[in-house]
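Example 3.2
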Amino acid sequence: MASAKDIVVKPITAKAAAEVVRRIHYSGKTVNNSQLHFGVFLDGRLEGAMQFGPSLDKRKTQRLVEGTLWNGFLELNRMAFSETLPRNSESRALGVAMRLIKKHYPQIEWIISFSDGSQCGDGTIYRASGFFLTGIKANDQIIEFPDGLRETRLVLTDALRPRRLELAKRYGVEVGGGSSLKQFLEIGAKPVKGFQLRYVYFLNIEARQRLTVPILPFSRIDEMGAGMYKGQARAKQAITDDQSAERQGGTDPHAPEVST
């Protein structure tokens, strides 16, 4: 039986990474401005991908660690692993990717990523991989339609976004040129209750001393009732369960999902 030690992690093309993300990630969508792409191989087969790039609001995110250069951090935009990969492949793959980034891009001091309980989970993978929890907040940015389709609030309120017009046509809604969400809510769409959790990994451990927000104990997840998996509350002890329960991650619920 294969183990996590049998996986191979190495750079791949943006195209190859996008194909994996579209096939496996719950959103089915990639982030167009991702810059670094790593593949996770088992027996020569590409079974997972990690995509790193700039944050949507890069200037605001940069302030999390005082003195960070403009090119001094990255966001883990997407992470998608197939069920074929052995148990604990997630933390091993992330560990290899972090070492490669540290070696080849020494200016990058830290990595940020987000976990969305309403869509995926509360970050089991990150906690098992040495990330620090730096933020938990209620998240109402995911809107679910009566037929189960989900979309971000940002997409539905952006008057210039073609996707908004596509959805308006699909559900027979007249949105005009405004940016209101009201028309969609009137046909039964509603925010999905959940939490957004923010995690940071330090490639340069000295940068941790410049963190401008507190590091939260993982127990805070229980205290806030933020332990979730695919929108369902976890039992309290489940926040330490095996990371394989969450094989997808790397998404900011406030960011627009861009299909490629």
